[in-house]
Write a structure and sequence with these properties.
The chain is mainly α. The chain is built from seven helices and no strands.
Length: 148
């Protein structure tokens, strides 16, 4: 079952269960997926759906930070509950030690020694880890590796 189909089935189940908050979040995801399908001109592959889910999760994290900084805890709580639902569809994130190991492997394979090669190393790492790591975290680790 594809991610889009899973979201649809989970939405039906949450509607039957009367879970309004989860249903609302799943409707938002379904809408985002539909908009992305229209944009790309074909049904989303699981890889494209994962990228969309990562983007949605990042938006929620950014919103939570902004709302907390503004003292709007009720809005931050809403975003946090949406984030929890979205994260249920994302693969388990790699630990920092595992990610550092992959960064070191890719940098060694590419012979990267300075910051000029940072983009290439980040690209290589992201190809390997896919949706299991956020780009910001990978960027930070690559920067640390290449500046050492």
């Amino acid at each position: 079952m594809s991610i889009a189909e899973q979201v649809q089935e989970d939405m039906k189940a949450s509607m039957r269960a009367g879970d309004a908050e989860k249903t609302r979040t799943l409707r938002l995801l379904k809408s985002s997926m539909k908009n992305e399908e229209i944009k790309v001109g074909h049904p989303l592959s699981d890889e494209e759906a994962l990228k969309l889910l990562q983007r949605e999760a990042k938006q929620r994290k950014d919103s939570i930070t902004a709302y907390e900084d503004a003292g709007r805890t009720e809005l931050a709580a809403t975003e946090n509950s949406e984030l929890t639902v979205i994260q249920g569809y994302l693969p388990q994130a790699l630990g920092e030690n595992e990610l550092k190991r992959i960064v070191n492997e890719v940098a060694t394979e590419m012979g990267a020694t300075d910051m000029k090669q940072m983009g290439a190393v980040i690209g290589g790492v992201m190809k390997r880890v896919g949706a299991q790591a956020e780009g910001g975290t990978v960027s930070k680790l690559v920067r640390e590796r290449l500046s050492a």
